[in-house]
Every structure is written in C-alpha cells, then in structure tokens.
Amino acid sequence: MLGYLVRRLISAVLVLALVSIAVFALFTYGPSDPAESMCPESHCTPARLDQIRNNLGLDRPFFDQYGEYMKGVVAGRNIDVGTDKPIECDFPCFGRSFKYNVNVWDYLKQRMPATFSVAIGGAVCFLVIGVALGVFAARRRGTLADKAIVGVSLVIHAIPYYLLALIAFLYLVNKLGFFPDSGYVPLTQNPAKWLYALLLPWLCLGLTYSTQYARFSRGSMIEALSDDYVRTARAKGLSQGKVVFRHALRVAIVPIVTIFGLDLAVLLAGTIFTEQIFGVQGLGLANLQAIQIGDLPIIEATVMIAAFFVVASNVVVDMLYSVLDPRVRLS
Amino acid sequence: MTSNSLIPDLAAGASATDEPFLVVDDLTVKFPTADGLVNAVTNLSYSVELGKTLGIVGESGSGKSVSSMAVLGLHDARTSRITGSIRVGGQDVVGLAESQMQKLRGNDVAMIFQDALAALHPYYKVGSQLAEAYLAHHPKASKRDAHRRAVEMLDRVGIPQPDMRAKDYPHQFSGGMRQRVMIAMSLINDPKLLIADEPTTALDVTVQAQILDLLQDLQREFNSAIIMITHDLGVVAEMADDVMVMYAGRAVEQGPAKEILVRPEMPYTWGLLSSIPEVDSDVDARLVPIPGNPPSLLNPPTGCPFHPRCPHVDKVPGNLCVTDLPELLPARSGADHLKRCHLVDPTAVYQSEVLPEIAPDLVEEN
Asked: What ipTM is given for this predicted complex?
C-alpha cells in the first residue's frame, strides 16, 4: 500500500514535470513575444526590446529559463526586473505578471476561494442530484418516471452550459430578481451572502452536470440491482432502503467516483463560463483575461495548476478505489 | 426467543391445522414480457414437513428456482403474476405486503444460493454480513451480540478460526468455505425452512459431499425443512425424502424419493436417470443425453410438454401426447407417487427398454 502510494506519487510528479516542460516550451517558442507586448509602442527601439528580453531572462538558453522557473515553483526565487532591487517571489513562485506587476501566485491565490466555492458547491449539487435521479430511475426502470428522467436529462445535456447559465442569469437574476447580482462574496466576509450569491451558479452547474451523472448512475445501479448479492440482501429480509443504498448503491457508486474526481479537478482549475456569466472573480476569469491581454506567466501558471489538479485527482481516485473496493489490492 | 417471527411458534401449539410447514397449492408464476407471457411455473403443488427434505429436480429453465423464489416473495410484483397459494406455517404469503414479507425472509424461510462468491456482498466483511442478517430480525440485539452470534455460526458450519475469518472479505475464502459462510448466514436466525438452490453446483465433488453432510447435520440439529433444488439426482438420492421432477414449469413426477428413483414412471425422469455418468462404467461408453432442448416457456408445446423429446410417444394410442396434457395422476405403485404421462403401462416400458440400459444388473431382480 505504502509502496504503491510512493510509486504513484513519483509517477505523478514525473507527469507534472513533463507537462511543465511542454507548457514552458509552448510559451517560449510560441508566436507571441512578451517583450514586444511590454514595450510601449511610442518609443520602442530594438535596444529597448533587447533590454526587456534581458531583464526577463528571455535571451538565456531554454533549460536555464526552465530551471530558474521550476526552482521558483518548488522553492521560491528572486526575480530580477532590471531595477536595483530584485523582487522576492516566495514559494510557490510562478513568476511575475507582465501586466499587473504582481507575483502570479499572489494574484491567483486570492482568486482561488471564489473558484473553489463555485466548483465544490456545484460538484456536490450535481453529484447528489445526479445520483439521486439515477437511483430513482433505476429502481423504476421502464416506467414513465424512468423514461422522463432519461429523456429530460438528454435534452438538458444537449443544451450548451453557457446558454443555460446565461438564460438563468438573464431571467432569474436580471428580470425576476430571484437571485442577487452581487458576484462573489467571500465566505469569511458574509456567509449568508456567500451562499445566496453562489446558489444559482451551483444550481446551473448542478443541472447541467447532473444529467450525465443521472444516466451513468442509472446504468450502474440497474446493473448492481440485478446482481446476486442484492437478491441475497433481499432474501435476508433487509428493508428496501438497506437493499438499495447499503448493498446496491455501495457497489454502483464506485465507477461514479472516477468521473467525479476528474470533473471536480477540471472545475477546480477554473469555471470560466460560470465566472464570466455570474461575475465571479476566480481562476477561470483570471485565465481568460490573461489570454486576452497576453499575460504569459499567468496563463502558464493556470495551465500548470490545472494539470496539478487533474493529476492529483487521479492519484486520489486510485487510492480511494482500494478503500471503496476491498478486492482491489494496491501493489 | 427474541426473534420477531411472523409465524406463530409451532411448538407452542399455535398451529391450528396439521398441515406441513410449507404448502404450495396450485402455484402459477407468469412473467409478462415484450414477446408475450412466459409461463415459468404452472399449477404446481407440493408440501414440505419440518425435518424433511424435498428435492426439486429439473433442467435449467424448468421453473425450479422461480417456484422457490416465489416462496420468499422475491419476484418483483410489477414484472410477475403469481396466483395460487403458498402457505408458510399456515400463513399465505402470495400477495403479502412487502413489510410482512421482510419479516419472513431470512427468518422463517432462508435461502442458500448457488454461487456464493456472487451471492455475498463483495465489499463487506463476512462477519458483518452475517451480523446484518441477524440484526434484521433481532432489532433489539446489540451489534456486539450480533457479531458474537455471527462468529458462533461460522464456527458451527466448520470454519476454522471463526473470529479471525469474520474479518475477511468473501473473496478471501475458498469456494467451499464461502458456501459454508452462505449456509451460516442463512441459518443465523434458525429458519424453519431452508431453500438451497443448487448449493453444491459450483463446488468440486469432495467439497460437495462435505457441504451436503453439513446440511444434513444441521437439519437434524434444528429440525428444519429443506428444499434442495438440483439437477443432480445423486444429490437427491443422498439428501431427499421426497422428490419433485419439474419440466417446463410443471411437476411431471413427484413422490417419495425411494419410490421415484426405483420405480420412475415418466419418460423425462428416465431420461434424467439415464444421463447420469457412472464412475465405474466403461470409459468408452457414451453419455446418454436427453435429445432436444428444453421447451420455450413462451410458446410451450401442445399436449404433454415433453412430447417433442419423448422416445415413447408412439406407444400412446392416437395422438394423445401431442393433443392432450396428461393429468398429474397417482402412479400404479401408490397414491403418493404422482406422474404426468399418457403411457398405459410405464412400468413395462421401463423394465424392458430403460432399465437394461442404465442398470442391467437390476433387471433380473425385478
């Protein structure tokens, strides 16, 4: 178990290292020149450009730059910006924003609570709604209720998320005023407003994603309900609730955990549409704005953070598997 | 006893009638499907007394399991139609409310399934699965009591180091041990009726014998009634007091085991007897299968359902086998031996045509 965990973590770190090289290469050899975008157009001379490149270290060999960058990520570093005093950039240092004149991590860090609030709340919504609907439909397989759930979930699934969220925002917030137009309110500042403001984003995420979970858990549950151990549970004289939840769902939930882990990881890395439509200043919006203005260090960092979440969620899901299914031996 | 049994305690004299513990009367089970109505069990009647064993024999799809699952009410009311009556300790369980059925299942009537690996929950320790069965019918018992009882039962069915093994998962047991766990779980509430659905089919022969011995021991100890569902007449010969042979959802021959095995009067039973491979026979001897396939229960054959496969149809005058379903009537040998066959003198046919094939050494004696 421990050996497996160690090996799994090492391979996760290797994957992240490869991703970081790829991302770094993409930005280094990519079409956009950061020096150009930082050079004021009115008095930008080749000499000035070279100086900016020199300040940013862009004229150094690729692996020098990469090594410097990664050193910052794992241990922090000082960034030389051409002035007398280098800027301190503590661990984890993802460099310095070209445009905002702040360290990338500091900039992103303050935006994380918003995205995490949206992502985790939304994920809880779609997991609970989706699995509940799936179990309900599976138990009533073939009935009108089952067909309605499957049909409606397909229809909702076919609507693009941004359209659904936009319509919800326009009608429920703008027109009817059921929900506030306050954007994100930090939990520490006012828990009630935090909840109130996030309710609609959660419901929109919940509705869209839950369709997939409803259909997936329905299938998984139908399979489990026809398994022999469920018949045994009934033959023991257990109540319907125990048979369905303690015996059938306990097995049916395992494959759902896998897709849930990945979905959550992707959401944690930024919920671009939600943040844009509901005015939540989170990671997704930071990424979007950085792309619009060509702020490479921020884009780089958001991509790396996204990769980290996906890889980490994979490790967690794998470990969880052995907890959920005792037949899985981690070795 | 703290068990909240649905059935009045028979020992207390609460049983108003003297009828056997389980009486199945004119049971019919149908499953409506998109292709039509499946007649899984038709007009089935049998009974089992406490301390006795009934063997139900037949091919796959003959209605053996379906009929006994009806006793536990395990068929979904939405997808099945059940008529007739099933009286357990005097109580008719057909159409009984789910909550009442729950009190009966695992408590008065318990079931052992064929494939213990699939039938036990893969994610729970066997000890807690046994304890769960106990707690379901002893709501006042503490978890500790239930666990102690679980270990006690594991010990009783011959699992070494039961307190250690209770902490293991089903996949950590061998096939035979797993079936013992299954038996322990079914007996944990002292059921009066045990339905064993091919309990030894997935096991090798020595383990099979151990499991059958165990069941017999436990039956003597608890005086429970057993229904042994099998397609193995060897198991029937060893275990059963009575036998019911089923074909296409109907009983085609039933009566005391000795009687049926020694003087069978129905060609299908003969076929089953002929198809038993013999250990001491010539290695070049071919197995004697029953020709053809089990009939469709969606469109059962007209007349006697066995007639398309029966080698003796021509011995019945007219076209009776094809046109008329034979009644289940007393055989020549006695009233408690019933058979469903048009043959006028089955004994003569058996003596002259079947017995020489399956047991030549017995022909002289008769």
From this structure: 0.87
pLDDT for res A244 = 96
Range of the domain at B181: 118-186
Domain end among B186, B204, B229? B186
- A324 chain-B contacts, CB cut-off 8 A: 123
With respect to residue B330, please indicate whether it lies within any of the assigned structural domains. yes
Cβ–Cβ contacts within 10 Å for residue A116, how many? 16
Q: Which residue of B has its CA nearest to A250?
A: B123
Nearest to B115 among A228, A235, A324 (CB): A228
**Whether A231 and B74 lie within 8 Å, measured CB to CB:** yes
Q: Which of A231, A237, A247 sits opposite B107 (nearest CB)?
A: A237
Any domain includes B79 = no
Domain tally, chain B: 2
Asked if B159 and B184 count as a contact pair (C-beta separation under 8 A), the reply is yes
pLDDT along chain A (331 residues), means of 10: 86 93 86 74 79 79 88 85 76 86 91 94 96 95 93 94 92 87 84 90 93 95 95 94 95 93 92 90 92 88 92 92 82 61
Residues of B in contact with A232 (CB under 8 A): 111, 113, 119-121
Domains and CATH numbers, chain A: 2-103 (no CATH), 112-281 (1.10.3720.10)
pLDDT for B363 equals 65
Contacts of A234 in chain B (CB under 8 A): 74, 105
CA-CA distance, B335 to B333, in Å (whole number)?
7
Distance CA A30, CA B102 (A): 69
User: Which chain B residues contact residue A238 at CB under 8 A?
Assistant: 102, 106, 132, 136
Q: Please return the burial class of B284, using the count of CB atoms within 10 Å of its CB with bins 0-12, 13-18 and 19+.
A: exposed
